[in-house]
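Transmembrane protein
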Amino acid sequence: MTTAPHLLNEDRPDFERVLTTAIRTVLDDWQDGESPLNGEQLRTRALAAGDEISAVVAQEYDTYCALRARTRDDARESARARENRAFGYAAMGVAEGAGSGAGLLAVMAVLTPLLAGAAAVIFLLIGYLLGAISPEPGIAHPLRTVGWFFALVTGAAVVLGGIGLLLTALRDSSAAIHDTPDAMPADVAAARDAWRDALLTRAMLPFLTTALTRTPTPTPPSPPATQLPHLGYSRPDFTSPHPPERDPHAHG
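Tokens:
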């Protein structure tokens, strides 16, 4: 396991950063010599107990998530309302906060491709149909010329409209890039900080401290005892044979 499963995916980087701070703190504060667990071992244990650690500060985390979700919902509703107003203003020829000139431009931007395209189709169709008649009427060529003119107007209007959409998309994407956690509303940022502080002080540090104190510090093995050679003379382990017993009845 490499992540805390209780958390949302977007909050796991915060969990990892708090865990890194907690590991550094407990290892710096360890006063009993060498720590029985290194940083990677502590991280593995903490991530494996992600649910247990997160449950300690579940109230702060739920508050943070609720505020963030409500803020995002409000932002979506506001964006949807602005899009609906913009569409209505363009359809009615009225620009938000602008005069009749801007409204006329909005109407032209919407209607020009439609009207020019329809005119191009009509004039080209009639011009080429008349051109199929022999002899060709004199009006056939002017009709085709007008049709191609409207076709060019339609193409230019479509290109300009595409450029406008591209610029709008770039502007929206730039705004989305700047929508970082540092730019979140004050109440959401405060809830996030409260959750991270509680996660560090009330959950991470106690868990890691307990993991260190319950793990015995390994002692280095003692070197094997070596038997020193005995110096000097020692009596051999064998005895000389006994002299033969003399027969008491023997005469010397």
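The two ends are 103 Å apart (CA to CA).
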